[in-house]
Design goal:
Layout (H helix, E strand, L loop, with lengths): L2 H22 L5 E7 L2 E8 L6 E13 L6 E3 L4 E6 L8 E5 L7 E10 L8 E10 L8 E14 L2 E16 L1
Parallel strand pairs: 3-10
Antiparallel strand pairs: 1-2, 1-5, 4-8, 6-9, 7-8, 9-10
Length: about 170
């Protein structure tokens, strides 16, 4: 290959790398934050230039005592929210879809609030409820997938975020 062609191709590659951060600046910052034991944890920042839809998958392992038979409980580790522009106080439109049943339980969804000092009030996190219906589930692992979706809007357009929660529930004594 000719040296001039190598130099031109190398210059084009460097130019593309130099402009990528500028292009990414126009994309919204999607953050996903988890609520655990009353504290906001696991904040993940996603920024994908040129994308209007962002999908993220998280595997969650949690536990339900077998003594909770017949009682709907909030599943620890399943409460999340989307944020935009790296602020926990933003409130994009969100909804959660949970299957109605799993192998051993009736499933549902709920919200938990976290006081962050936001002018708009407490921050809502969306998660899953688990109502153990079958005693024979003791010592077993149940699983399901719930989906949290969010819609964002800024001066560049409308954006959609999807968080798939692959949930494994250990049913203990």
């Amino acid at each position: 290959m000719n040296n001039i062609i190598k130099i031109l191709l190398g210059g084009a590659a460097l130019s593309a790398l130099a402009t990528a951060p500028a292009i990414a600046g126009d994309a919204p910052h999607f953050s996903i934050t988890a609520l655990h034991a009353g504290n906001a944890v696991f904040k993940s920042k996603l920024q994908v230039p040129g994308r209007k839809n962002v999908t993220y998958t998280v595997a969650v392992s949690t536990y339900v005592p077998a003594s909770d038979l017949g009682t709907a409980v909030h599943l620890l580790g399943t409460y999340y929210k989307f944020n935009s522009n790296s602020s926990l106080c933003t409130t994009p439109k969100m909804k959660i879809k949970v299957p109605k049943k799993s192998t051993y339980a009736k499933l549902g969804h709920a919200t938990e609030t976290y006081s962050e000092g936001c002018a708009s009030g407490p921050t809502k996190f969306y998660g899953d409820t688990y109502d153990l219906k079958k005693a024979k589930g003791e010592g077993k692992v149940d699983s399901f997938v719930s989906v949290l979706t969010a819609k964002f809007k800024n001066s560049r357009g409308k954006y959609n975020g999807t968080l798939n929660l692959d949930v494994k529930v250990s049913i203990g004594a």
